[in-house]
Design a protein that fits this description.
The chain has 497 residues and is of the alpha/beta class. The chain has 15 helices and 17 strands.
Length: 497
């Protein structure tokens, strides 16, 4: 059977980690632009295991929400040489977009995912008129894609909110930000709607629980603020779907979920329940966006905690009437949880330390503790399809590695192993389980700043960018071994692994 002829193959990026050009073309600052690199945050050692069994350890710094400086101090410190703000230059896509898109086209991509920086179009987020220089930049990017028959997929909000909206309104805590977002999106449809068919409303919307500043621009975050912000994002998404269905019937609007299956560490029913509850914390977000209603387990939790939704008349009906057209997701690996906290690998699950998360003894990990799970995508696709019966799109999957540049390139066999295993697992889901899958986008196809650490050192790309953690370097692009491997894979429509 194999992948369909229309299968979308390509890569994914995000403006805050890739675009740079922060003060160019009349752009305003976003919440990402006041995030430092991770070097000032707390670090701990984490061990890693290569697929060939080699082991070692490296310092790990904690998640992206800890990268921003104390409230109030931020703008004043922007010129302080003590701090480095990686989004300002990032991978300088702003000046390299022609070259990058050409390299991706040569690799065989028929699809590329970008995000639009909202504050490049509306510097304060809620300005009445759009910044035409910003429109020109994105039009040039989409035209370049068209030249190579590359289908753009656009994320409307990827981990950055206009800073002015965060500072004045506490981001999506406020209905004002929600309304400004809908105005921004309507403008995107008007200005780019003939060039872009696939739109994603909020990147990894469920990460708001762990990273409310990054995901929704919350400077003050308690459970009530987070519930407000999630509600406003759900409503915004539905209003955007409504706009598209009523005025731009060719557009497809997807939600975007961060998904990693959670396995129970033991057969203890308490571990099973723990894993199920962890999954529900993620699936709550897709339940609302794909099924149009708040699930009972969440309503019961809100009631227990005294949380009240900021719903106005008609809002819940709008959410019910306009679910998303498809479900896109990121998936890097799986997680393991247990109530038996005596386990020595406590806190070393994928993506860092979380309560009750442990390392999976059966899987290899990278230097940041992220495990490669060869069954992950098949399990994920089955779970999501069984629950929602909708089109699915894997828009992020990849592996960060401390690549070594030698012999004029990077010999990244570990990345090839990772991709081979993941694409095979995805193909099994299509072949054996009949899952309707729209496409596969490899995360960070061109090296870019990592979200969690704000570093270049954790590279995902198949294209190397000559830049270090502090923006030093020529920014020249070089194809890695994985670039050639993926090129062959795409040319065979995923048969040649
Ligand atoms: C996803 C995000 O969570 O994971 C990306 O959508 C991010 O923005 C990616 O870069 C990988 O995470 P990290 O922290 O290694 O960059």
């Amino acid at each position: 059977m194999g992948f369909s002829k229309q299968f979308l193959w390509g890569g994914a990026t995000a403006a805050n980690q890739y675009e740079g050009g922060v003060s160019e073309g009349g752009a305003g600052l976003s919440t990402a632009d006041v995030m430092t690199n991770g070097s000032h945050t707390v670090r701990r050692q984490v061990t890693w295991i290569k697929p060939n069994g080699e082991t070692g350890s490296t310092p790990l710094c904690f998640g992206s929400d800890e990268r921003h400086l104390p409230e109030g101090a931020v703008p004043a410190l922007l010129d302080d040489p003590k701090y480095y703000y990686p989004s300002h230059k990032a991978s300088d896509f702003y000046h390299h977009y022609r070259e990058d898109i050409r390299l991706c086209a040569e690799e065989g991509f028929n699809c590329l995912r970008f995000s639009i920086k909202w504050s490049r179009l509306f510097p304060n987020g809620d300005d009445e008129t759009v910044n035409e220089e910003g429109v020109r930049f994105y039009n040039a990017v989409f035209d370049e894609c068209e030249k190579y028959n590359i289908e753009p997929v656009v994320t409307l909000l990827h981990y950055e909110t206009p800073l002015a909206l965060a500072a004045k309104y506490n981001g999506f805590d406020s209905r004002h930000t929600m309304e400004a977002y809908v105005h921004y999106v309507k403008t995107c449809f008007e200005r780019f709607g003939t060039k872009v068919k696939y739109w994603l409303t909020f990147n990894e919307i469920n990460c708001i629980d762990a990273a409310p500043y990054v995901t929704a621009g919350l400077i003050h975050a308690d459970p009530q603020n987070i519930a407000n912000a999630a509600f406003h994002q759900f409503l915004a998404s539905s209003l955007v779907v409504k706009e598209a269905h009523e005025h731009y019937p060719d557009l497809k609007i997807g939600m975007m979920l961060a998904y990693g299956p959670v396995y129970a560490y033991t057969a203890d029913p308490a571990d099973q329940l723990l894993a199920q509850q962890a999954m529900n914390r993620t699936l709550f977000y897709s339940d609302v966006q794909m099924l149009g209603r708040y699930p009972n387990y969440k309503l019961a939790e809100y009631e227990r905690e005294g949380i009240v939704l900021p719903a106005k008349e008609g809002d819940l009906e709008t959410i019910a009437a306009y679910p998303c057209d498809f479900l896109s997701f990121s998936c890097y690996g799986s997680h393991v949880m247990t109530v038996h906290d005596e386990n020595e690998a406590k806190g070393e699950g994928n993506g860092g330390a979380q309560a009750h998360t442990v390392r999976n003894p059966y899987l290899a990990t990278n230097a940041w503790g992220w495990a490669t799970d060869p069954q992950c995508l098949r399990i994920t696709l089955n779970t999501l399809y069984d629950r929602y019966h909708c089109d699915l799109f894997c828009v992020e999957n990849g592996i960060g590695w401390n690549d070594v540049f030698e012999d004029g390139t990077v010999h990244d066999d570990y990345r090839i192993d990772y991709m081979r295993a993941n694409i095979r697992s995805m193909r099994d889901a299509v072949d054996y389980d009949g899952i309707p899958l729209m496409g596969y986008l490899y995360w960070g196809c061109v090296d870019m700043v990592s979200n969690g650490e704000g570093e270049m050192a954790k590279r995902y790309g198949q294209i190397y960018v000559d830049a270090d953690n502090y923006g030093n370097g020529s920014f020249a692009r070089t194809r890695k071994d994985s670039w050639f491997w993926y090129q062959k894979c795409i040319a065979s429509n995923g048969e040649n692994l």
